[in-house]
Structure formats: structure tokens, C-alpha cells
Amino acid sequence: MFSNKLFTFFRNNFLIFSILLILQSCGAFKLKRADVKDVPINDADKRERNIREGRGISIGGGKSRSGSFDFATSNEMWRAAMEVLDFVPLTTADYGGGIIITDWYSDNLDSEESIKIMVNFLSNEIRADGLKVKIYKKICNDKQKCNTQLMSSELDNEIKLAVLRKAAQIKNEDGKRKGEESDYKVTPTGE
To answer: Disulfide-capable partner of 167 in 70, 76, 94, 106 (CB 3.0 to 4.6 Å)?
Structure first.
């Protein structure tokens, strides 16, 4: 009777036992033995070891850079883009996603043309290839029938250059406040 129940148990859980056996034999499922001399006993030593090994507090679940946080106020590129685009209302400003999208904007209320600016941040560094600017143009007729298209002009490069210059200026000002030597300069280049 007991052997019948044991056989049924193993038959029902054969897949689980097989996987565990394979993992154990491959070395993927090894338990590391803790040595008393390597594991600190008091809390202060545990905190010091965790900081030394880079196991700080992490917010954001599973990011490889635990203990390091980037905030919009500390990112010069983000701050510069917000200052450069302050004349137009924003639809989306997502620091986590690295994107700013403006609302449709026109100089003249009676104008049939309006533009929308989209800024993608590809890097936190102040570099020309760390920023992508796209401008969309919308032309509407009297019957409110509109045509939207990606605009190719120098305006996107002018906005990009203005953001890079402003970011360099912010970086230099922040460095001076902290007493650091920073020498960021942006010069126009033919990309």
C-alpha cells in the first residue's frame, strides 16, 4: 500500500524531479556554503559589505545598476531640452522613457500650419548622437481636413544644437557651484 502511493507520487512528479536532476548535474543548481568568517554578524558590518559589493537599495526592480539613481533634475540634457522647449505646451514629458513630445504649435492663431516637436534622449551624456529631434508639420484646410508629415528642415538641427549648448552651459554652471573644473563646449558639426 505504501509503495503504491510512493510510486504514484514519483510518477506524478517525474518532470519536476527530472528538471532538478538535470540542473544539479549541470552545475546550475549549486548551493554555496556560507562560511561564518565571511558572513558578518552585526548590522553595521552587513551594511558595509553590501555597499562594498554594490547591493544598495534598488527601486525599479531588476535593474543591473542597483543603488544608482538618475533624476530629471540631475540630467543636464533633460533640463536643457525643457528650457529650450518652454515656449510650447507639452503633451508628453516622460523622463523614464526618455522622450518629450510637444503639442501642436503655431505662431499665429489663424494659421493653417502647425508643428509638433519630438525629442528622444538616447544617452544621458552631452553628445550630439545622444539626442534625436523630429519635427512634424500639420497643414489643415478650411474644412479642417489635415495633412501631417515629417518635416525635413534645419529647424530640428537648430533645436538639437540649442539643447546641446544649453546642456553644456548647465553642466559648467553646476560644476562651478560644486567647485569642479568642467570644460564642456558645443560646436556645430556636420553630422
So the answer is: 76
Residue 171 · residue 182 · CB < 8 Å:
yes
- CA atoms of 85 and 78, how far apart (whole Å): 11
Reading phi first (left if > 0) and then psi (alpha if -120 to 50, else beta), residue 60 is in: left
pTM above 0.85, yes or no: no
- Range list of β-strands (E), the chain: 90-94, 99-102, 113-121, 131-140, 146-151
Residue 67 region by backbone torsions, left for phi larger than 0, else alpha for psi between -120 and 50, else beta = left
Q: Grid coordinates standing for 168?
A: 553644456
Q: For the chain, give every domain's residue range.
A: 13-69, 72-178
Tell me how far the alpha carbon of residue 25 is from its chain's centroid.
Answer: 39
